[in-house]
């Protein structure tokens, strides 16, 4: 929500995190620009009245042969010009939605105030690029997930996911990947995917951290072992294999780990 005019804040009616309804007043500004717009409307209304009376006078004089047709036509043109100027002034006033010297900021949608960058008695300028308020309808939210480069081949549009948040680690939310951003971030070598989630209860909030588990379509059989069986040594992974002749140390390649299972290569079933 931006201000269409500059001015000084008279009052702020909402705080960060408040729920607002569409059309609810967020703040009121005192603005000299609005006062000027209101003055333009008043002057234009007076000009229309004067032009109308002059046109009616010229019409009476023309009908009584006391004025020329040119005088009457000129009065009609001036009346139409005055009406056009009044319409322009009223349209400008409607765009700002202001009256007198007060400009009212109203919520364009129903939702939560998730950003607030103003306070009472502060100045608001038109060249300020920062939004005064940001309002979000959180009934549906987006979760943006980072996919590691090694997992990109396994991610597809429409894959089902389960979501866990730090706020509610024991609760799972379900959704689907509805957009894949086919571009890698050069800084962390990840690709982003978007998951749309219903959030009627309001439990999912902006800027939360979440862990996403994707139920990817199978691309082939991968051997898995208990994750606790892996031994780390000198940045490499090993397992101990029991054979008839005794125990052997085998180096393996860890492909991925999901909960208590490790998916590997380097061993036979």
Structure, explained:
It is elongated, with a radius of gyration of 34 Å. The model has no long low-confidence stretch (mean pLDDT 86). It is an alpha+beta fold. The protein has a five-stranded antiparallel β-sheet with strand order 8-11-10-9-12, with no helix packed on it. The chain has a five-stranded antiparallel β-sheet with strand order 13-17-16-15-14, with no helix packed on it. It has a four-stranded antiparallel β-sheet with strand order 4-3-1-6. It has two helices and 17 strands. Helix content is 22%, strand content 40%. Helix 1 packs antiparallel against helix 2. The longest helix has 32 residues. A hairpin with a 2-residue loop joins strand 16 and strand 17.
